[in-house]
Design brief:
Layout (H helix, E strand, L loop, with lengths): L3 H5 L1 H11 L4 H8 L3 H8 L10 H14 L3 H57 L50 H8 L23 E7 L3 E7 L2 E8 L4 E6 L3 E5 L5 E5 L2 E2 L10 E5 L9
Antiparallel strand pairs: 1-4, 1-6, 2-3, 2-5, 5-8, 6-7
Length: 291
């Protein structure tokens, strides 16, 4: 078993071995299909920048084998370092939670004291006797209306019927002249409003590139379409995704054996072995040649 000082030189061992062989990160990234960002994270022991899980161990194993180091020992050292870092993080979290619990308990006590004070005040206010000052208002006397005279209660006399001579016959208006009728009939009716045709919606043009991904085993994947990151996460088995672009699609698969891919309907077949990282840069010019 290695000592604590040797474990702290985990990333330095990778960097010194690479520099001793005169290998640039770009050359190693091109041959191992591991991005320079992940290689730098391993050398700096910045494991939080890696995808996590089985992908971290796969990257470390592939990098160690490329440099001629003991890959099994490198993975074991990584497991010990990562587990120690997680234990320190848990201790720090427990230390931070203690003042928070004390603060919450103090807030509960203050709130309870305020609630008790409000209840006591409400009790004394509602139990206080109410006193009225001043005389009670007097009711107004109801005065009955005066009685009507006997003559007002008799029925009014019925007027006599009017004579035939006094009846006035209403005058009828004369019929309109033929000239007025012709003028009225010759007035043209207002034109009906014509419906403005609605333009047909434009049919979007099809994209030059389209890839279909079928995940058969858990794998991390990153897809960039026309310079925009469309996906960067771990996909589970049974997931199907489709991506399209006009200029280019960049694909990084952390577990080559865990997914299949089609480019414009063309199946690429087996992408690689389990744990191998594959990177694809697909353009309209090389879409038919990518393997």
């Amino acid at each position: 078993m290695r000592s604590q000082s040797e474990m702290s030189n985990f990333g330095a061992t990778f960097r010194k071995t690479r520099e001793a062989k005169g290998l640039p990160l770009e050359k190693i990234a091109a041959e191992t299909r591991i991005s320079t960002r992940f290689l730098t994270a391993i050398e700096n022991e910045a494991f939080q920048s890696l995808p996590g899980g089985i992908f971290n161990r796969g990257f470390i194993r592939a990098y160690a084998e490329y440099l001629g180091l003991d890959s099994n020992q490198a993975v074991a050292d990584y497991d010990r370092i990562s587990s120690t870092a997680e234990e320190h993080a848990d201790v720090l979290h427990d230390t931070d939670r203690a003042p928070a619990r004390n603060s919450d308990w103090n807030l509960y006590l203050v709130a309870a004291a305020i609630l008790v004070a409000l209840m006591v005040a409400y009790y004394f206010v509602t139990r206080a006797p109410t006193t009225s000052t001043g005389p009670l208002p007097q009711r107004a006397a109801v005065v009955p209306p005066p009685a009507q005279p006997a003559q007002a209660q008799t029925e009014a006399p019925i007027p006599p019927p009017a004579s035939p001579a006094s009846l006035e016959v209403p005058k009828l208006a004369p019929p309109p002249s033929p000239v007025a009728q012709a003028a009225t009939s010759s007035t043209p009716a207002p034109p009906a409003a014509t419906a403005v045709p609605t333009p047909a919606p434009k049919v979007p043009s099809t994209s030059a590139l389209a890839i279909d991904v079928n995940v058969t085993d858990s794998t991390w994947m990153r897809v960039t379409a026309d310079g925009t990151v469309a996906l960067s996460e771990v996909l589970q088995a049974g997931t199907n995704r489709r991506f399209s672009a006009e200029r280019s699609i960049d694909v990084v698969i952390g577990n080559a054996a865990g997914a299949t891919m089609q480019i414009n309907g063309r199946d690429l077949g087996q992408l690689g072995t389990s744990g191998r990282v594959r990177e694809f840069k697909i353009t309209p010019e090389n879409a038919a040649q990518v393997r």
